[in-house]
Amino acid sequence: MMTIRIWAITLLWTLAGTEVPGAEIPEGPGLGRPAPAAYIAAWDTDVMADGAGLPPGAGTAEAGTRIYAQQCLSCHGEDGLGDSGDQLAGAQHKLTDEWPEKTIGTFWPYAPTLFDFIRRSMPMRTPGSLGDDDTYAVTAYLLYLNGIIGFKDEMNAVSLPKVRMPNRDGFIDARELP
Amino acid sequence: MARGDNRDKQLSAPTEFAAGNGLLDRRLFLQGGMAIGSAMLLSGTDAAAAGETAIDPRPKWMREPGAEFRPYGFPSLHEDEVVRFASPNRVMRNNGASWTPLHLLEGTITPNGLHFERHHNGVPSLDPEQHRLLIHGLVARPLEFFMSDLLRYPLRSQICFLECGGNSNAGWNRIPSTAEAGYFHGLASCSEWTGVPLATLLHEAQPGEGVRWLIAEGADAFAMHVSIPLEKAMGDAMLALYQNGERLRPENGYPLRLILPGWEGVLNVKWLRRLELSDRPAMARNETARYTELLPSGKARIFSFVMEAKSLITSPSSGMVLRQRPGLYQITGLAWSGRGRIRQVDVSADSGKTWAPAELQEPVLPKSFTRFRIPWRWSGAPAVLKSRAVDETGYVQPERKVLLAERGRHGFYHYNAIVNWAVDEQGSVSHVYDDDDQDLGDHPPVDAGWD
Question: Residue A114 sits in a domain of what CATH number?
């Protein structure tokens, strides 16, 4: 009951700033079924910026070198310099240069996001096919290519969130700009 | 067509100039009886201009039965140039974008087969019987819905535009784009979407305390996921099942997509399968490394959700030629704002020295394409046409040099500057920048890639 009352207050607050015609929330027929926990566990692979959601497993750049060559190189090029796919590393120009290069090393704010993205979306032809160890290894290899970690540094659920990305403080919330 | 027969006589009728270089009062056409010249693509043919050979009292199509019924209609075969323009990745051809041919359309509703597309790894061929939506995270009741469930909810319809955050990004380039208007600004479309208000379903799941964000995920090969503030989710957000009266097209998210009126396209997650209520955003790749705008300071704008007011003249526009030169033309275009209704669109025919208000086609709906029109008597001299949108918040669409001064040259997303079309003495129309907005530096043009 408490939750519902708090929710109703939250609702009033959130709707105050909108301009929806007839802003009252239409009552639904309540057809939602309890979501099977197994589905939620299987589908929710989100890894948050702070590392929440990172799975067990580990990998190093050393191990990632071979996986990158097999799975990534054909689109992202030697040393992550880019080809038909994005340039991932090897930036010669800073973000303030006339010709900025946005790579993992110069632009990405959080290391765990790399793990999330590689596991969810890559490689393009067989997305979702990399296991957790291989994903850690490719993540480590890309961080290594960008000079952020060493060749033998192990990336896992504890170490990856501790990696401080060079552009960690590089973003401004547009909603707070004039 | 009788156009042109008595053009000279009509042009001599008294008219009221509304601004410099031939712009006429926007109400002129409403008074009726004005024949107008046509602006056509250079590739277009004009039978009337080619001249009739012999009078045919009963053309071929009146001497034989017409075609039989077909279960789903197609456009006329004579309209086969009215198509999207696709720009796929050269290797992964299911990654890329396709543009709505805005310069070949009228009105405000985009036909479903011409709605713009941005796919990050193709269009999934998913089975709607198996597809389900999960709502979970910080909720008292994690829920799942099949599409057959959602179709039994009270539905609502809303007309709104959808615009990719990267639309018009050729505008950042040093050299003016030579693309036709739609293939430059057509990562924007407008549809009537029908579905279930998102708030209804979130309410049913009973969000807990501390919920601030909604993380949405699609069921495509990319498993696209983004974060949306709760206020928007509880506001005008909708889970769309129908697009312009029919079920969503596969390329627009069949069977279920998120619609966030006025907010950048990537957030309107297609093939929606999961909504996770959270106390914080995911900081996903597509809200950090992409869909953020690098500023001259080296910092980048993040969470720039709203698509600000924009307008462009769709005819005459780049690549067209004014065929009945000189003469009376109708300038027509589109304006929209992610913050609400368009209040006014001003048009200039003298490169912004003077402006006249265009007629806005009713109804003017919030966060929707608004069609504007104004008559123009072209003298035959060179002209630069511009349109400038003002929305109900008072926001004024900026000139390009103003936008560049604020954002630099490498923002890639959220380009909404005023668009210039130059008309030369032959009536050919092309895209130009202002005289005081030329970058003569020795920089390569921006490569507006879509990887």
Answer: 1.10.760.10
